[in-house]
Amino acid sequence: MTDIDKIISSLAAVAEDPLGYARAWKDRTQGKVIGILPMNFPAELVRAAGALPLLIQEDDAAITYGRSLLFEFYCGYTRSLVDQAATGKFGGLDGLFLVDHCVALLGAVDAIRFELPDLPVYLAQYPASMDEPATPPMVRERLGGLWRKLEQVCETTITPEALRAAIAASNANRAMLRRIHDMRRAGQIALSGRQMQALVKSAMVMDAAEHGKALTALVALLEGQQAEPSNRVRLHLSGHFCHAPKPELLDMIESCGVTIVDDDLFTGTRFVATDIPEDGDPAEALARWYFDRNDNVPCSTRAQKSADWESYLAASIRRNGADGVIVLVAKFCEPHMLYYPELRKMFHANGIPHLLIETEHEGLPLEMVKTRVEALIEGIRQSGRTRETA
Question: Which family is this sequence assigned to (predicted)?
Answer without folding.
Answer: Belongs to the FldB/FldC dehydratase alpha/beta subunit family.
